Amino acid sequence: MNTGRVLPWLSTLCLTLLMQTGVSATIVLIEYEDRNGVGGFPDHGGPHWQGFVDTVADTLTIQSWTDLPGTPAFWTPLWTPDLSAFPLVWPAVNAEGAPYDVPDDFLGVITSAFAFISPISARNMLWNEGQWGVTAGFELPPEADYFPGWGGVREPVNVGGVVSFVYDTSADETSMPLLPISSLGLAESTGATVTARVAPNVESIPEASSFLLGGLVAAASGISALWRRRGEHAAQNCRTPA
Fold it and tell me: How far is Cα 34 from Cα 53, in angstroms, rounded to an integer?
């Protein structure tokens, strides 16, 4: 057999099967605007952030975040994270805190089955306004900390005097249940307008298909190596003794 034809033939097979499985967009652009009563009174303002969901990595990446101003007499700005060095990357998790497989057709709707929750607590996140949980001469205990999120939160719950951190995914895409409003204060963002759209020209292999492609490529490499070794062995047997 001509071993030089093996790998190209298997590559063509991989491509054909991949085309049959189809491709799907994996990057969904997200804009979250909590105008909290825009057009009404009072308007308390709220977060305005932009980022994207990667349905293969199952993460939300937040690239920009500001606070929308509200009616001056009623508006206390929420804190905003410092994104000057790195964006926020929040994984999708279920109510037990286990990784959640975001559907390939995700388009901004968050059900009670999951939420995007920060792996870093509010105390340890970088905020433009300061360090949450710490003020002059006073510091909240570690069990008072929490992990903010979109559509949910990881928060401390006291049961029988024992504090544990639990995942609450009962909110939806219009809510961020806990956010800092001062060094020790908390507030909720609700009723936000969420805009989601598939990023243009960003397509990837669906998760199930990626495993198939990986297997095909591995098989192609293995078979090619096998035929190459057989060819070398045959060539050695055909050599004329000196």
Answer: 19
